[in-house]
Amino acid sequence: MYLFKLFFISLITFPIVVFSHGPTRQKVTDSTLIQTNSDKVWEIVSDLGNIDSWHSEYKSIDGKDDLKDIVFFNSGKGKIEILSINNDSRSLKYRLKNPGNIPVNNYSARLSIQKNGNTSKVVLKGAFYRKYVNNDPPPGEDDEAAIEAVEKIYKGTLMKLKSLAESK
User: N or C end: fewer C-beta atoms under 10 angstroms in the chain?
Assistant: First the structure.
């Protein structure tokens, strides 16, 4: 009788567990080689007051605390939390608390600069959920839209940073 009850409960709860899963965390990574030394590239990146000169999406970051106001080039506004700026490893980690018009949720990213002889390898890595966190997202708030938006931002940012660093 016990086995029958266990089987019956499992039979009823299995479909609920299987089909109740929400969105999965997405990840995007992109990189580029910049024909200048890593110190020069890090000097540009670590100056968040001039983020508009090298980032394709972020126009300005303002605030004294770890949670700062961010203005996007597309006129949106949001909040960014700077998790770490590490001069030794040349890395910047942050989380968008309010991503503005970017169709993501719970977005975190890491930008790192690796020394590669006289060149620098810049790597952008991000992890996020789509904007619509329930099942059956509307168009523009699904996984594809989120991935496409982040890939576009990364490509634009790496091109802009490469152009700036190699022109100095």
Answer: N
**Tokens describing residue 162:** 């490469």
52 within domain boundaries: yes
Q: Does residue 88 carry a pLDDT above 60?
A: yes
CA distance 104 to 98: 9
Nearest CA among 123, 158, 118 for reference residue 37: 118
Asked if the structure places residue 13 within a domain, the reply is: no
Give pLDDT, residue 162: 98
The structure tokens listed for 36 are: 């200048």
What is 16-80 written as a DSSP string? Answer: HHHHT--PPPEEEEEEEEESS-HHHHHHHHT-GGGGGGT-SSEEEEE-SSSEEEEEETTS-EEEE
- Asked if 44 contacts 65 with a C-beta cutoff of 8 angstroms, the reply is no
Q: What is the pTM of this model?
A: 0.86
Residue 89 is assigned to a structural domain of this protein: yes
pLDDT at 145 over 70: yes
Banded model confidence at residue 74, pLDDT cuts 50, 70, 90: confident
